[in-house]
Amino acid sequence: MSKVPIVSQPTPLERLPRLSETLGIDLFVKRDDLAGPSLGGNKSRQLEYYFGAALEAGADTVLITGAVQSNFVRLTAAVAATLGMQAVVQLEDRVGDHSQEYQAGGNALLCDLLGARILRYPKGEDEAGADAALHTHAEILRAERYKPYVIHLSEGHPPLGALGYVDAAHEILAQNSGFDFFVVASGSGSTHSGLLAGLRGAGSTARVIGSCVRRPARAQAARISRIISRLSDISNDARAVKESDIEIWDGALAPGYGQPGQPAVDAMKLMARQAGLVLDPVYTSKSFAAIPALVESGQIPRGSRVCFVHTGGLGALGAYGTAIRDIL
């Protein structure tokens, strides 16, 4: 598969000594919040393959859909700018927050700054409809002599982005192969699926726990299974994954996507005050919340070696200032 180098070097893998002592585990963090441009994030690894495919197809414009505060669309705009391409980002109303702070701040503001053309889509959780709207706009662009490439939101397309986390799994194992558990946000599913596939393909038996940020555990497990199946068509690593390898936790999902609940805010405070690292309210706070909860329940035994994948998302912080202050 064609690939554009966006993540130029291995991101750090750091031990967190105070949190390790507090939680009774040996805790490391994979700093993919440092991956790529414009405040970074895990989507940089996915975009290496999407932009590789776009350039191979001769595209000069990339179109993508995400929530109003999507890190994926912000990074797409940033990478397009570095490559001299146009980005068309379609922001869907997935959260229902119509405040000026949410609609125009954070990642939405950064998309403006990065020069993206911004479209709006009124429905959340309508992946097929959002993709259809992008294809309609792509036809308009073709009539204007542009060469568009659509990054799809819906299932049924080759999960190129997951290949970025197959690579990341190999990168982590080269840094430290001794982990018992990995914990990662599980939303669209590409990061979770790719990480699991890469680990199993490399022979690692470490458990991978995906912490839900978008849908309940049963629905998310089914989605990961479908992605793994499609990923196996383009990656031999995915063929080593068994259904029993798919583990999901949704204890911090409430009150829903893009809405921080108490477990998420508690996780933000714990990480900030014991490790000096900032988590975002949509993804990483809800994924990190799994670790203390699972240690307390015994599902992650004390003394385990645990890798938390920090997927970034800090571009959205400016859109959640009021909500975070209210909960704090």
Write the layout of secondary structure elements.
Layout: E1 13-15, H1 17-23, E2 26-31, H2 43-56, E3 61-67, H3 71-83, E4 86-92, H4 100-104, H5 106-113, E5 117-121, H6 127-143, E6 148-151, H7 160-175, E7 181-186, H8 190-201, E8 207-212, H9 217-231, E9 247-249, H10 262-275, H11 284-288, H12 290-297, E10 305-310, H13 321-327
Parallel strand pairs: 2-10, 3-4, 3-6, 4-5, 7-8, 7-10, 8-9
Antiparallel strand pairs: 1-2
Helix pairs in contact: 2-3, 2-7, 3-5, 7-8, 8-9
Walk me through the structure.
It is a single chain. The chain has 328 residues and is α/β, with parallel strands linked by helices. Helices cover 43% and strands 16% of the residues. It is built from 13 helices and ten strands. The strands form two sheets. Strands 1-2-10-7-8-9 form a six-stranded mixed β-sheet, with helices on both faces. A four-stranded parallel β-sheet has the order 5-4-3-6, with helices on both faces. Helix 8 packs across helix 9. The protein is globular and about 60 Å long. The N and C termini lie far apart (45 Å).
